[in-house]
Amino acid sequence: YFAKAEHFTTPGIRGRAMAAFFHGMGHVPVARADTRSAAAVIDIGVEVLGEGRALGIFPEGTRSPDGKLYRFRTGVARVAMRSGAPVVPVALVGTRAVQPPGTRSWHRAPVQVHFGAPLQFPAQPGGERSSRVLREITETVREAVQAMSGQEYVDAYARS
């Protein structure tokens, strides 16, 4: 999975334990505020897929602050176009009850994981440089996730 860089850089014993856990699980740190660094992570994702491994991406880039589905970032489209790998949309339902935003405690609650049909996006010459093509692919993935989750869509990026 791509994971925010803060999971790898938090100071103290707890931070080192978190970093060890995320590294051990194969997560890739993403410095979301640094556009150049975030773009380099796309190359790592393509490499992971090229090795025949799976890659998880949370296209909203952060947790939803209110349970609604927010606009997706285009990283999933970039990885799909560069790698040729199919995109399997996944919807997680019930996660807010497990750890509500703004809390540190976890609660026992049922979580549903819905897998959609794989989506294939053939490479298009110059497609990755086209914001229109990237947005179309991203919206196709978002619509598939929304259909499975039943969430209301907000056409804005979520704030963490």
What does this structure look like?
- The chain is α/β, with parallel strands linked by helices.
- The chain is 41% helix and 11% strand.
- It has helices at residues 6-9, 12-24, 35-50, 75-83, 95-98, 131-149; strands at 2-4, 28-30, 69-70, 90-93, 112-115, 153-154.
- A two-stranded parallel sheet has the order 1-2. Strands 3-6 form a two-stranded parallel ribbon.
- The longest helix has 19 residues, at 131-149.
- The protein is globular.
- The two termini are 18 Å apart.
Strand content: 5-15%
Largest sheet composition:
2 strands, parallel
Which class of secondary structure composition applies to the elements? alpha/beta
- N to C succession of SSEs: EHHEHEHEHEHE
Relative helix content: 40-55%
Cα-atom radius of gyration: 16 Å
What is the CA–CA distance across the termini? 18 Å
Q: Key terms for this structure?
A:
160 residues; single chain; two-stranded parallel ribbon; alpha/beta; globular; 6 helices
Explain briefly what this protein structure is.
With 160 residues, the protein is an alpha/beta fold. It has helices at 6-9, 12-24, 35-50, 75-83, 95-98, 131-149; strands at residues 2-4, 28-30, 69-70, 90-93, 112-115, 153-154. The protein has a two-stranded parallel ribbon. It has a two-stranded parallel ribbon with strand order 3-6. A two-stranded antiparallel ribbon has the order 4-5.
